[in-house]
Amino acid sequence: MQVKEVMSKNVICCTKEETVLEIAKRLMKYDIGMLVVIEDTLSKTPVGVVTDRDILNRVVIKDLDTQKTKISEILTKNIISIGVNESLATAVDKMKKNKVKKLVVLDESGELAGILSNSDIIKQFLEIRQKLVDLSIGF
Predict the structure, then answer these.
(1) Total count of domains within the chain
(2) Alpha helix (H) residue ranges in the chain
């Protein structure tokens, strides 16, 4: 099974020029823990990620002004990504190796295609398991 079959395609993004306050509100509105930071809305080229933990550790604890601090000042530039055509096994290995729960999914041109979370993978395996259980009941 490939990443593109399981990933979430509707990715909430932000640009690096937005403020921490704007992004914190977006995280809360969509009940998510991470946003992909893109260069601009036209290219959809990821330049980093920002998490609720980044905001806590890099802004709140340092008592920075959330209305003035730009995402570019706190984003994580080292994006852990995977290609849309990679296998789920490769994705799991990459998550484990990098100790992350989410991977940024890139298309063939290096632009944002989606997000793959460990929850997406678990859900897929549970669905497969249920199909196997249903199949064995039929015997």
Answers:
(1) 1
(2) 20-30, 52-55, 88-98, 118-137
